[in-house]
Structures are given as C-alpha cells and as structure tokens.
C-alpha cells in the first residue's frame, strides 16, 4: 500500500560556497520538518559559482538531495565532467546534441534517470532552453519522447522536469505542453524566484523559476560590487563571490503516487539566521 501523498522538494540553483553552506545548514531540518519524501536540487553553480565538482555533489547528496540537476554551466569546467558519468544522481540537460556519425562520442553524463525511493518511482528529466541560450536539440521534442515513453509503462513513474531556461515564454510553453501528463515542470537558471506557482490541468505543478539557493545580498549569486562594476564598465572582470547570509528556495509539491497528479504546490524561501 503506497502513501496517499508524497511530498517532493524541488530547489533552485545552488550558488557557490554560501549556497553549499545554506544547503548543509538548512536542508536537513527543512526536509524533516516538512516531511519531504524526495528532493531534487539544481547544482549547476555550486562549485565556485560555475559547475559542480564531484566533492560538492557528494556534499549536497549527503544532506538529503536525491538527484542533482544541471544546466548551461555543467560543462564549463572540464575537470568536473567525470563526475557526470560516475554519479547516477547527477544530471545534465538531456537535449545536448546526439552523436551524428558512427564512432562520435556522446556528451558526457546523462540527462534523466528513474529513481526508486520507499517503493515510489520518480523519473527526473533535466532540459535546457534555447531562447537566449546555445542551440541545443529541441527540448520540446526531447521531453515529448521521454514523457510518452514513461507514461506508456505499465506502472509509470512520477515525472519531474527541471527546465533550465532563460525565457519565461519557453518555460510556460513546455509546462503547458506537458500539463496533465507530468507531476511537475519547474524552471531554473535565472536565479530569481517567480511568484507564479500553480497547478496546471489539476495535475502538473509549475513555476517559471525556483529561485537560487545562495547568497541573499548578491546579484544572482555574485558580489554586488563586482556585478555593478561589470555593468558600468562593460569589462568582464572575474566574478567575485559574496560572504553573507544564504537562502534556500524552491517549491514543495504534494503528489498522489497512484494518479501521479500534483495536489498542491507551495513556494518556499528559508533564510539563514
Ligand atoms: Fe544557474
Ligand atoms: Fe544556468
């Protein structure tokens, strides 16, 4: 007999040392207080603001994340690529282009996974947008293929999608294309939490951006002094990381594991003291 409801936490981009500290200091108590059954966190900025190292992935997994998704920064640090193949709970966007010729190497890592926890199966799919971003394969076609496949299984998993994208219209379009067929479509990448969380077609939790897990007094994670200077001078000075209080941001989605319908969505922001 399955639980009547499972509670899932989806958290936004972990940014730098303050982001990792926030995860370590806030996540365990938060997951326990809220009774969270499954936790997905985007980690594309965890290590120094760009990418995710194996060591930092293990730190995030150790305090309660079940899956860590990625984004456009995932491949920026070559040293971190081996972790993508070695850690099954670590994803990168699934729509990086497929090999073309026989013998071409595929992109490192995996874009989705199906995970079982407490007898409930969860499919997590990571996608990346194309508007104002690099021209990857079509995220809509990638999503459609995988979602149709999962939904045609005899006992389909709860499907959760992290759509790492700049454009709100692209995120809403994917959310509405999949409405009623997946349990959640959440946006990441902008680091600014949006207030548009809702349930689409009585089944699919949606938010345009989960927001960042990282420094509160920052410009999308970076030190404001540096960010202001970059904007004024238009010179690409090296990013500096702030030292200040952090925040944990994301949504909690309650899902009926039998119907896989999202029953409720709650937006959260927990601040470090
Ligand atoms: Fe990010
Ligand atoms: Fe990003």
What report would you give on this structure?
This protein is an alpha/beta fold. The protein has one domain (6-98, 106-271): Metallo-dependent phosphatases (Purple Acid Phosphatase, chain A, domain 2), CATH 3.60.21.10. It has helices at residues 16-34, 54-62, 81-86, 139-151, 168-178, 224-233; strands at 6-11, 38-42, 67-69, 112-117, 120-128, 158-164, 184-188, 198-200, 204-207, 214-215, 246-255, 262-271. The strands form 2 sheets. Strands 1, 2, 3, 10, 11 and 12 form a 6-stranded mixed sheet that branches. The chain has a 6-stranded mixed sheet with strand order 4-5-6-7-9-8, with helices on one face. The relative contact order is 0.18. It binds fe (ii) ion (2 copies). The site of one fe (ii) ion has 6 residues, from loops.
Label this structure with key terms:
alpha/beta; 273 residues; 6-stranded mixed sheet; Purple Acid Phosphatase, chain A, domain 2; binds fe (ii) ion
């Amino acid at each position: 007999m399955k639980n009547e409801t499972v509670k899932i936490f989806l958290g936004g981009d972990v940014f730098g040392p303050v982001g990792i500290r926030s995860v370590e200091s806030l996540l365990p108590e938060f997951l326990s207080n809220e009774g969270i059954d499954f936790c997905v966190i985007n980690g594309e900025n965890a290590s120094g603001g760009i990418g995710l190292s194996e060591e930092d992935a293990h730190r995030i997994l150790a305090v309660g994340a079940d899956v860590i998704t990625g984004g456009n920064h995932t491949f920026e640090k070559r040293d971190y690529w081996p972790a993508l193949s070695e850690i099954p709970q670590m994803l990168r966007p699934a729509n990086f282009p497929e090999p073309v010729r026989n013998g071409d190497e595929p992109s490192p890592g995996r874009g989705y996974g199906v995970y079982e926890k407490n007898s409930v199966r969860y499919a997590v799919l990571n996608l990346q947008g194309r508007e104002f971003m690099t021209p990857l394969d079509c995220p809509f076609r990638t999503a459609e293929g995988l979602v149709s496949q999962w939904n045609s299984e005899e006992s389909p998993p709860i499907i959760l999608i992290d759509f790492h994208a700049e454009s709100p219209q692209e995120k809403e379009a994917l959310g509405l294309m999949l409405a009623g067929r997946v349990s959640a479509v959440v946006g990441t990448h902008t680091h600014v939490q949006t207030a548009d969380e809702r349930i689409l077609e009585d089944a699919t939790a949606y938010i345009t951006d989960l927001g960042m897990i990282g420094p509160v007094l920052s410009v999308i994670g970076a030190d404001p002094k540096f960010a202001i200077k970059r904007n004024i001078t238009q010179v690409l000075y090296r990013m500096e990381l702030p030292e200040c209080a952090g925040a944990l941001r994301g949504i909690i989605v309650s899902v009926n594991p039998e119907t896989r319908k999202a029953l409720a969505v709650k937006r959260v922001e927990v601040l470090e003291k």
